[in-house]
Fold this protein.
Amino acid sequence: MTAMAQISNEYAEALFALALETGQVREYSEALDIVLNLMNENPEYVDFLASPDIPRQERADAVENAFGGSIPETVVSFLCLLCDRGRIHTLKDCISDYKKLSDAADGVSTAEVISAVELAENEKRIVDALQPISPIHIPSVELLYMGRDKIPVRKYEFVRGCGVRQLNSNMVLKHKTKLARQLANFLYQVSMSDPAEIRDLKPTPDDAPRYMYGWSQGDLCDNFFADPKTMQVVAIIDWEDARFGDLSPQMGYNKNSPQRELMDAVRHEYDVLYKSGGKRQLDS
């Protein structure tokens, strides 16, 4: 699953969990159909909502004016959240994922239920095992088993912050070393750990951590949240693709991009940590 697909899936799961709690699964689905139809008919509206040049409040007001009173307020708030986090372009995928959850809960689709259960439960096990080890916060995952097929819906702990693509590029480069040292320390501490409770999830249970090889989140650069004022990394999110294996694929980004420069710096700082046995002190 790509990072963007993971993001849309998690937003859909969060909305679906709220729909289940309020008993409005069908009402939310119908509301999303209304939203999708409007956006299909007016693609420029999506561009407006996605534009960082338009103040957040103005975009939120536009959503409220378009849908307030005609669809459930929670769905309106959901749209505002996507706008606020720069994710409105994932809306179609979010709606598609929501529909799949809704259909599965109604027993329409059962083929993917077993794999969905396994993925969700493995993600929670990995998060629970690595939380005490990670020097950066890993948000908690709660599994809510819904419907007659007991489909797991993941309820994620809310964290505040911005992803690398929402941070100002110049700020990322200015504070590259500070960010890189935090992320490298996270990579080192987590990858060099070997929690007994998740060894069965490794390709080979007896496989040992080593240089650039061990537990990792899977797509670090796109899934850390930082405080834009302090450039302190506050959380590592999206653990569905976590695995025990080679860390180097996470370092590959397009040339001449802030992400590439940042991950090159992370690799350098990781090497320093590894050679020192993890004893290097992080600068504030």
User: Anything to note?
Assistant: Residues 104 and 110 are 6 Å apart (CA to CA).
